[in-house]
Amino acid sequence: MKVHIYALCWNEERMLPYFFRHYDGVAERYFIFDNDSTDRSIEMLKTNPKVTLERFEIVGDSFVSAALKHYNECWKRSRGQADWVIVCNIDEHIYHPNLKRYLRTCKNLGISLIIPYGYNMVSDRFPRTSRPLCESLKCGMREPSWDKPQIFDPNKISEINFAPGRHAADPVGEVITPRNARVKLLHYKYLGMEYLLRRNFELKSGLRPLDIKNRWGHQYLWDREANTEEYQRVKANSVLVL
After folding, report:
1. Range of the domain at 219
2. Helix, strand or coil for residue 223?
3. Residue 122 in contact with residue 139, Cβ under 8 Å?
4. Phi/psi-derived region of residue 169, left when phi > 0, alpha when psi is between -120 and 50, beta in every other case
5. What strand order describes the sheet that includes 184-191?
6. Distance of alpha carbon 25 from alpha carbon 170, whole angstroms
7. How many domains is the chain built from?
8. I want to staple 64 with a disulfide (CB 3.0 to 4.6 A). Which of 102, 103, 187, 216 is the partner?
C-alpha cells in the first residue's frame, strides 16, 4: 500500500516535527513544495529521506490562485506510482487508528475518494511533546467546512478540481466514496493564542491583492480581538475527539 503526501510549506519549523511523526508510518513519499521559507523548514525537510523537496513560486497577484493551480496538478505524478495521495497542509493530520489498513480496505472495495470529518483542534499553549499530536492533544470543535476532499486514488481520479482552499472539489473520473468515512481531519491551528496570533500574522503577509479582494484567507486579516474571540469560541465548543 503506497501513500504519497503532497503539501506546501512556508515557515513551518514548529509544526514539521509533528507532521512527520504523524505521517511517517503511512507515507512512502512526501512531495513538499517550499515557498521560500526563512526559518529552519528547508533544513528540516532535507533531513527526512522520504521527502522530495521542490520550490513553490507564486506567479500573479494571488497566493490562493497560485496554490489552487498547484494543488490541482501536483499529485498527478503519483499515477501508476501510488495507491493513494493525500493533499494537505502541514497542520492537517488525517487520523484513523490504523490509517494504512483502512486505506487498503477502501482500495479493495473500489473506493477512490475519502472525505474526512474535520475538526479544529485546540490547546491552551503550543505543545512540547515528543509524541504525535493525536496522542496528546485530543480535544477540538467539529467543523464541517474542514471536511476536505483530499484523500484519493490518483489512478481513478482524472481531475480533482479543488475549489479555493481545497474545502470542496468537483472530481472527474471513477469517483466512489464510502457511505461513512471513518477518518478525521485534525486541524492543529488553535494551539494557544500566542501561536495562533503569530501564525495568522505571518500568513497575512503572504496574501496578495486578489486574495484580499476576494476575501480569500480573510481570517488572516483579523485583529487580536477577533482572533481571541474565535479562539475562545473553538475552545468553548470543543469536545473529546479522540
Report:
1. 3-240
2. coil
3. yes
4. beta
5. 92-95, 184-191, 117-123, 139-142, 239-240
6. 30
7. 1
8. 216
Q: What angle do CA 183, 157, 12 make, to 5 degrees?
A: 55
* Gap between the Cα atoms of 67 and 8, Å rounded: 8
- Cell digits of residue 242: 479522540
What is the C-alpha end-to-end distance of the chain, expressed in Å?
25
Contact in structure between 119 and 143 (CB atoms under 8 Å): yes
Q: Identify which of 219, 220, 221, 211 has the alpha carbon closest to the alpha carbon of residue 63.
A: 211
**The three three-digit cell numbers of residue 158, written as one number:** 482524472
The model's pLDDT over 54-72, given as tens digits with 9 standing for 90+, comes to: 999 998 999 999 999 999 9
Q: Which three cell numbers stand for residue 28?
A: 512512502
> What pLDDT is stored for residue 19 in this prediction?
99
Query: Higher model confidence: residue 210 or residue 25?
Result: 25
**pLDDT at position 3:** 99
How many CB atoms are located within 10 Å of the residue 156 CB? 17
* Residue 212's CATH number: 3.90.550
| DSSP secondary structure letters along 180-207 | S---EEEEEEEE-HHHHHHHHHHHHTT-
Q: What whole-number distance in Å separates Cα of residue 94 and Cα of residue 88?
A: 9
Quote helix, strand, coil % in the chain, to nearest 5. Answer: 35, 25, 40
User: How far, CA to CA in Å, does 23 sit from each of 17, 78, 139, 169, 172?
Assistant: 10, 17, 20, 23, 27
